[in-house]
Design goal:
The chain is mainly alpha-helical. The protein is 80% helix and 4% strand. The chain contains one helix and two strands; from the N terminus they run ββα. It has one helix spanning 15-92; strands at residues 5-6, 12-13. It has a two-stranded antiparallel ribbon. The chain is rod-shaped.
């Protein structure tokens, strides 16, 4: 027995066409679900990458700051050593130039 129904255009469909339509609707729904899941996964991955980038940015700033402080300390030490050297040169030159 074949079930026949009339669609909105007035033509008739049989039972196998209904099964095909149901399969198409299920496939479309599956596609929408899959697209939604892919979109959510993409958003989660993007958020994770942004978070890691912020962490790296903070670490880089901290490392740069530490390096800057070490450089300033080294320059200060070299400056003091140079001043000591010049001071010793002045006191050890003949005739007190």
């Amino acid at each position: 027995m074949t079930i026949t129904e009339t669609n909105p255009t007035g033509s008739q469909k049989n039972g196998s066409t209904n099964k095909t339509d149901d399969a198409i609707k299920k496939a479309q729904e599956f596609g929408r679900d899959l697209k939604g899941q892919a979109s959510e996964l993409t958003q989660n991955a993007t958020d994770a990458v942004k978070s890691q980038a912020e962490n790296l940015k903070g670490s880089a700033k901290e490392i740069a700051s530490d390096a800057g402080e070490k450089l300033r300390a080294s320059v200060s030490e070299q400056k003091a050593a140079g001043a000591d050297y010049v001071g010793n040169v002045e006191y050890h030159t003949p005739y007190g130039l």
